[in-house]
Predict the 3D structure of the following.
Amino acid sequence: MCGLTRPEDVAAAVGAGAQYVGFVFFDKSPRHLEVSTARALALSVPEGVAKVALTVSAGDDVLDRIVSEVPLDMLQLHGKESPERVAELRARHGLPVMKAVGVATAEDLHALEVYGRVADQLLVDAKPPKGADLPGGNGLAFDWRLIAGRRWPVPWMLAGGLTPENVALAAQMTGARQVDVSSGIESAPGVKDAALIAAFGRAAAAA
């Protein structure tokens, strides 16, 4: 469950069974956090739940500060990072890296093979529409048939337009064993909803 901004959101996500909690560091996002806020939230996460920092084409100075001040278990790279940059950051920070790859057509699938050779995990997301401010968290899905039955060199997570109502179908159609949600558990952009968090947790677990 990604884009958490308040202590009660973290508690609700953990209570709903989230295995990863995501904190966004991207100032164009309504879910953006200051480093000090993210640190306080991360310190409240219990052992066994992975704390993930989502960044978008961030420079070394930004990433160095995030990693040095926030207790993290993983980086999620959601920008235009090259495979070489992914490998560089993985080595620089000593943390596992999840690379987000946007999918809209079959032509986008090759990138998953490429990034699967350098990242520890893949986030298979919906490609944002042209001109969108956000690379993810737009509440858009893609044609799940494109990845039905496909596998990559590393574990992967399905994202993009998932909700309590469709997550079971998404898992059934794609074979995903991990799913990522942000806007699908919000009552307004950037505002998480405890009832939706609980409903998504139940639906995902049942799937």
About this structure: Residues 7-206 form a domain with the TIM Barrel fold (CATH 3.20.20.70). The chain has seven helices and eight strands. The chain has one domain: 7-206.
